[in-house]
């Protein structure tokens, strides 16, 4: 709805900003000058003791010199009440006695009808509240007492009782002049299939009024007193006022509490919300008898950027959480996500708070996990990945899930987390450094120490050409490999698998490798080096500052993709072979028990020969294949994929 020109100006003229703000602050009268409309108070938007919040009543603006919050009366109501723009305008307009702009006749008629239905719902809430105090409500009162609902909680949530009679509400409200058709239209009564007098929809049930974001009663929820009832919980039907998938229980109070800094906790049902609120978690909401819908998710995000979904700790709770994950993935935006709190032992929030108190619930919320972890758990829990095929199936499933994320930045960060979790699962750590055997003679009784920390290089070594780059022959190969991929990004996709598995000794190289894998699948790879530089500028400058990188043919010849392809395959083969050989040697040393057997000797010789084959591969294969660079690259890639340095089991 658009507002006519001048409406907001007139509203601001009629409203006293100091009066609006005064409901939320305590003025510092020593600093304020009420006659001039110059008012000061501690800021309501951040915690402080000094009066740094200034209201200029004549100009109609406020400003905080501490947190720099600023705005007018509409902005203040929006921020403090957590309302939308039009809701804030309507609230202030009612206060100022200004009618909201007229809408078209059909819209006005519809609004009048909705107002009638709201009034009918309010009368029903009053009726059911009274019935809870009658003799017919004795059993309901006993149940509420057993659930430890205080009188204050009953009053706050307006809990009532629907007697076990067919026409109790119908007779009570029609006697007040309310038409039966309105009761049916509001969802309070239903007509028999064969026609005739309507009957009460809610009977022998504890009643929970459902209000919208503006605090208007729009429907009811009922908990059956009869344990054999067909439906334990019953919500009102879809009406002009009420849509289950577009509303949340306790919406308005939760929105106000979240606006004051409380975390938004999403529970399963009415009693969970009431228990949370009573325990101090006042920004608590629940869906209304359905699984969380897309509209409800968007509604939650309008209340708080990162709702916490409180899941019952049983299998059904986990399944419900995973449905929310699937729903949320395409909707994620920067600063807009979900966290999941898993409750112990199949309990719900009501159970946990009653058994262990608010502190236990707070611990559960503090341990809430990001959504990516729940996604990872679903795909890996209880499964064994002991073959390449199973690992590939996991990768395929995860890629499909990540493709559903629309925001490219979030998709990239999810990919990073998934890769980290994958490496942890499969025992691969790209930053792991090689260990060095320690053959230092032992003293009598001293425990054998197999490995010692590498000794720092000598100054002469650091100053040499070999040590000028990253500090060793393997790091020279790393530098050349990464620089070549930066210059030829089209090769990243081909060598992605080998690049992921490669152990990199230099931390900067590991960070650069991550950037290459993140951006290597871009459809447009122009200006690739500049894209990488936005994340890893210092590493790139150090990399391309090395003389052996600057003079390397694949780096100098940006157009020669075949040469670069061959050099990348060669560098990967050598690095995998060298590090594979070292791991075999380390494992063999661990197997030594004073004497080496033939198996250990064979492993050492095979590891050494594999490394030598990789080192000779370029010259020997070039001699065998002539100038066929594609065949050469394929041969080198086969060496990597075949892991020729590892002893094959019979």
Automatic annotation (TrEMBL):
Name this protein carries in UniProt: DNA primase
Subunit structure: Monomer. Interacts with DnaB.
GO biological process assignments: DNA replication, synthesis of primer
UniProt comment concerning the protein's domains: Contains an N-terminal zinc-binding domain, a central core domain that contains the primase activity, and a C-terminal DnaB-binding domain.
Enzyme nomenclature, EC number: 2.7.7.101
Pfam families: DNAG_N, Toprim_2, Zn_ribbon_DnaG
Gene Ontology CC: cytoplasm; DNA-directed RNA polymerase complex; primosome complex
Record key words, sorted: DNA replication, DNA-binding, DNA-directed RNA polymerase, Magnesium, Metal-binding, Nucleotidyltransferase, Primosome, Transcription, Transferase, Zinc, Zinc-finger
The organism of origin for this protein: Rhodobacter ferrooxidans
Extent of Basic and acidic residues compositional bias: 435-449
């Amino acid at each position: 709805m658009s507002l006519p020109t001048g409406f907001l100006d007139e509203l601001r003229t009629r409203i006293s900003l100091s009066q609006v703000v005064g409901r939320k602050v305590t003025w510092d009268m020593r600093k304020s000058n009420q006659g001039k409309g110059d008012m000061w108070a501690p800021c309501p938007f951040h915690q402080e003791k000094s009066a740094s919040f200034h209201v200029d009543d004549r100009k109609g603006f406020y400003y905080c010199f501490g947190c720099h919050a600023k705005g007018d009366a509409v902005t203040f109501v929006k921020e403090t009440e957590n309302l939308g723009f039009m809701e804030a305008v309507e609230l202030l307009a009612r206060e100022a006695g200004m009618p909201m702009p007229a809408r078209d006749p059909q819209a006005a008629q519809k609004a009048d009808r909705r107002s009638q239905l709201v009034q009918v719902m309010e009368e029903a809430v009053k009726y059911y509240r009274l019935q809870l105090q009658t003799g017919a409500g004795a059993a309901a009162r006993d149940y509420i007492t057993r659930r430890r609902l205080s009188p204050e909680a009953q009053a706050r949530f307006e809990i009532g009782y629907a007697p076990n009679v067919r026409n109790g509400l119908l007779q009570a409200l029609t006697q007040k002049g309310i038409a039966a058709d309105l009761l049916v239209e509001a969802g309070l009564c239903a007509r028999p299939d064969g026609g005739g007098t309507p009957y009460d929809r809610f009977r022998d049930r504890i009643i929970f009024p459902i209000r919208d974001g503006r605090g208007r009663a729009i429907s009811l929820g009922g908990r059956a007193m009869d344990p054999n009832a067909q439906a334990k919980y019953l919500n009102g039907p879809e009406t002009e006022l009420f849509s289950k998938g577009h509303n949340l229980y306790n919406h308005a109070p939760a929105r106000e509490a979240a606006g004051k800094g409380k975390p938004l906790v999403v529970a399963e049902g009415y009693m969970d919300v009431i228990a949370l609120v009573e325990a101090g978690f006042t920004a608590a909401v629940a869906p209304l008898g359905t699984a969380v819908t897309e509209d409800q998710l968007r509604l939650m995000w309008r209340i708080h950027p990162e709702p916490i979904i409180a899941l019952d700790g049983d299998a059904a709770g986990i399944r419900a959480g995973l449905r929310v994950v699937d729903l949320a993935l395409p909707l994620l935006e920067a600063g807009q996500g979900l966290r999941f709190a898993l409750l112990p032992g199949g309990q719900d929030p009501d159970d946990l708070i009653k058994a262990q108190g608010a502190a236990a619930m707070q611990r559960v919320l503090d341990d809430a996990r990001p959504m990516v972890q729940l996604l990872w758990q679903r795909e890996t829990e209880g499964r064994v990945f002991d073959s390449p095929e199973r690992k590939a199936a996991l990768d395929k499933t995860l890629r499909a899930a990540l493709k559903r994320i629309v925001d490219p930045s979030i998709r990239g960060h999810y990919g990073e987390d998934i890769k980290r979790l994958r490496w942890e699962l499969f025992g691969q750590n790209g930053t792991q450094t090689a260990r060095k055997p320690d053959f230092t003679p032992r003293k009598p009784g001293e425990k054998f120490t197999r490995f010692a920390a590498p000794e720092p290089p000598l100054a002469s070594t650091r100053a040499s050409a070999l040590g000028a780059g990253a500090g060793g022959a393997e790091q020279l190969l790393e530098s050349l490999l990464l620089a070549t991929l930066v210059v030829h990004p089209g090769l990243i996709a081909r060598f992605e698998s080998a690049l992921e598995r490669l152990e990199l000794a230099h931390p900067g190289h590991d960070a650069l490798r991550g950037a290459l894998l993140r951006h290597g699948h871009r459809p447009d790879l122009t200006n690739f080096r500049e894209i990488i530089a936005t994340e890893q500028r210092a590493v790139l400058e150090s990399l391309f500052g090395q003389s052996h990188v600057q003079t390397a043919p694949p780096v100098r010849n940006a157009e020669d993709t075949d040469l670069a392809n061959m050099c990348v395959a060669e560098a990967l083969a050598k690095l995998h072979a060298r590090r594979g050989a070292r791991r075999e040697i380390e494992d063999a040393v661990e197997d030594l028990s004073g004497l080496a057997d033939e198996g250990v000797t064979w492993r050492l010789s095979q590891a050494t020969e594999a490394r030598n084959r990789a080192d000779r591969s370029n010259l020997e294969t070039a001699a065998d294949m002539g100038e066929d660079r594609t065949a050469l690259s394929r041969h080198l890639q086969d060496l990597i994929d075949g892991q020729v340095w590892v002893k094959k089991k019979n």
